[in-house]
């Protein structure tokens, strides 16, 4: 069995306890006073972009949405116009069938009008 040196052990324990109370992490004198300036110097320089360049994606999105909305409106209006023309043609055909007017009479009427 080993005999440990009780005095040597106390001395080491006192040294460790003392060191634990001290802050082992220290910064150099004046480190934080110039920190922001040194940090900014190390950052890469970035070109400033104009407001027009930043606004271009938004402007393109607005134009795209407006174009899509206009196309949809035009298509819907065109389909409605075609449907109305077909309904009117169908109505005129029915009227002519019931009025007993033949194609020759229609042709004569149209040529007299000019």
Structural write-up:
- With 114 residues, the chain is mainly alpha-helical.
- Helix content is 74%, strand content 0%.
- The protein has four helices and no strands.
- The longest helix has 49 residues.
- It starts with 5 loop residues before the first helix and ends with a helix.
- The mean pLDDT is 80.
Which features would summarize this protein structure in a list?
single chain, 114 residues, 74% helix, mainly alpha
What secondary-structure arrangement, pairings included, does this model have?
Layout: H1 6-21, H2 35-42, H3 51-99, H4 103-113
Order of helices and strands: HHHH
Count of alpha and pi helical runs: 4
Radius of gyration: 47 Å
Mean pLDDT: 80
The parts where pLDDT drops under 50 for at least 5 residues are none
Counting DSSP E segments of at least 2 residues, the number of strands comes to 0
The largest β sheet comes out as: none
Helicity, in percent? Answer: over 70%
What fraction of the residues are assigned to beta strands by DSSP?
under 5%
Structure in a nutshell:
The protein is mainly α and 114 residues long. Helices cover 74% and strands 0% of the residues.
